[in-house]
Amino acid sequence: MQVIDHNTYEALRAGAQVLEADGSGDKVLRLTDGCMLKLFRRKRLLSSALFYPYAQRFANNTRALQQRDIPCPRIIAVYRIPSIARDAVYYSPLAGETIRQLQLAKTEADALRVRLGSFIAQLHEKGVYFRSLHFGNVVLTPENTLGLIDIADLSCQTAPLSQSKRLRNFSHLRRYPEDRQWLLGDDAGQAFFDGYRQGLPAGSQQAPLIKRLRQLLD
Fold first, then answer.
1. Degrees, nearest 5: CA angle 176-182-186
2. Taking the CB of residue 187, how many other CB atoms lie within 10 A of it?
3. For 94, which DSSP code?
4. Considering the entire predicted model, what is its pTM?
5. Is 36 helix (H, G, I), strand (E, B) or coil?
6. What is the rounded CA–CA span in Å between residue 193 and residue 214?
């Protein structure tokens, strides 16, 4: 993590477009070079972010995903900016559209549900637990692959996720009615679960897991 002074920060953000902000200030900036600057503040004086800043987590998570061949943003630098009490990650965004942004005909949407199910199964098999799993954070790239963005709230392990972790991960989707409707509405859910099944290793205990996932999301 590189410490930069206020003049350096102001030069970096000159002409930037503010994409997200709240009452405490800017959160996400699109810089004039097309790259992004995501700013993090520590909400409590004593927190885990003091010892392991979210900006550094974001950067470390990109490396973990890249090692697993999962498309994600490319890190340029990680900064500490004492003058505004923020840490920041400077990165090249993952090109493409999020699942929520796509407007697809039914046949195309069903095909994407199959791919999405397989993609999430592969994440789980590769030990990726993405707490912020929702369709605003899953991107279809110009290369027609699926990838992840906004990955500070993510952890990776060497072994596949346990069934209980998979169920907890799927429970996040229940919090977003638009995601749940797109995934399961109008009998669409079969395509997604078929895809998840396809993403699991041959011979694994698929049927009980798929049944529990269905029960969780229904």
1. 130
2. 8
3. P
4. 0.87
5. strand
6. 8
